[in-house]
Write a structure and sequence with these properties.
Elements (H helix, E strand, L loop, with lengths): L5 H6 L16 E6 L5 E4 L6 H7 L13 E3 L5 E2 L15 E4 L8 H27 L1
Parallel strand pairs: 1-5
Antiparallel strand pairs: 1-2, 3-4, 3-5
Length: 133
């Protein structure tokens, strides 16, 4: 629920068996996809997507640098045209660097689709892990 409003909080009635879960604020940012060392890095205030990607040893040769996107802790995905600008990354975010897809044959298409599904699975697992802590 949206508990930012005090009036909403006052109107909530708890009954026996109800549980209140207050998640901890994540302290990391996850970088997945076509970077040299994908994984989670400690969150630092005012750090940009570019600096996190550089901390993950940079892009691989297969990275689609123009289609990098960020999944915020609330699940909202954004791809900014000025991704490398001054906008900082929120703690708990996931930076996704997709693979550049060049379709050459049926086997190449299957490999590309499999890779995308794998990357999305990793991303969802990372988000689930952050939310369950």
């Amino acid at each position: 629920g949206d508990f930012k409003n005090l009036e909403v909080l006052k109107s909530i009635k708890l009954t026996s068996g109800d549980k209140i879960f207050i998640p901890k604020k994540p302290s990391s940012v996850t970088v997945v996809g076509e970077v040299m060392t994908p994984g989670s890095l400690l969150w630092t205030k005012n750090q940009t997507a570019k600096s996190y990607i550089n901390s993950a040893a940079g892009f691989t040769e297969l990275a689609d640098k123009d289609k990098v996107f960020i999944i915020d802790p609330n699940g909202k995905a954004t791809r900014k045209s000025q991704l490398w600008g001054a906008s900082s990354i929120k703690s708990g975010s996931t930076i996704v660097v997709p693979r550049k897809i060049v379709l050459t044959s049926a086997l190449g298409k299957i490999s590309a689709v499999t890779s995308v599904i794998y990357q999305l699975t990793l991303t969802l697992a990372g988000i689930d892990s952050l939310l369950s802590n």
